[in-house]
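Review form for a predicted model. The reviewer records the input and the model, then writes brief findings.
Reviewer: anonymous (R2)
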Amino acid sequence: MAGRWAFVFKPHESGLRKVFGELEAEIMEILWRRRRASVAEVLEELKMDRELAYTTVKTVMGRLAEKGYLQRKAEGKAYIYEPVTGRDEFLRQVSQEVLQGLVADFAEPLVAHLVELARGQDRTILKRLQAFIAERRKAGRKS
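Model under review:
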């Protein structure tokens, strides 16, 4: 991601709400599933669960485009919106940026916590982590 998107990470929220608001997350999920849609098409799906105004959905989709999450293209009298990146790639990029920030600011406690989590989950995870570290050390000596 490298500064591509500006977002606030909310660790206590669930799923995509860690980086999006509730309606933004729902809209992104619809667009990742459909790959492209107009405001009216997104509104139709959202209306299955709740009542929303067309202008509300249009405003949120416009803001997602301004933030760089969506691109929009004029087709006839309407805009068609598409995600800039796929869902899996987006999650990979967000995870990478969050982890880089944590490592930059909290490397030692982060690693200690990860080791404790691994130890508490399954001994094989800790063994795999030890093997991974040994591989990295060995690779580092070769270069």
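Findings: Residues 87-121 form the longest helix (35 residues).
Further findings: The mean pLDDT is 91.
Recommendation: see findings above.
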